[in-house]
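$ run holo --ligand "zinc ion" --emit tokens
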Amino acid sequence: MNDQDHPSHPEHQSTLTNPQVLSGICDACGKVGVDLYKVSLGKDFFNRTYDRLSHTEDLHPKWFCSPCSLEKGYQRDVRNIHQELEKLLANDSSLLSEEKTLLQAISHVEKIESYVKKGRKIHLLLPPREVGLLLIELQQALSARFPSENS
Ligand SMILES: [Zn+2]
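-- output --
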């Protein structure tokens, strides 16, 4: 779990009046002169508060154009769901231990999968293979835990 595959650009030193949006280079796709958003605050898929501002890795803030910030949000969801799935498979306490939440996670990952599979865009932040594997693992976990209703 790290962001080392998204190199930061030290040239983001614009003077900001509005910290949410500026114009510059997207840290994911490298597009120049686009409106940029910082994806640091908000709620994750499990409705937990998402705050990366206090994390050490955010000493070098990353900025994303609009499509990449959407994808960054999906990446965050995929990683969080994957983390909870690993806990579930290890029989630790997991947010996915409830069937309802597990089903919601599957339908959310299905939505993300159809997003990464359509179009010609190269998904730098969210490899379709990673999403597809997560979906398969979730479905396996569902039928293993709740075989009668979902097989
Ligand atoms: Zn971008």
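-- notes --
Residues 26, 28-29, 31, 64-65, 67-68 surround zinc ion (CB under 6 Å).
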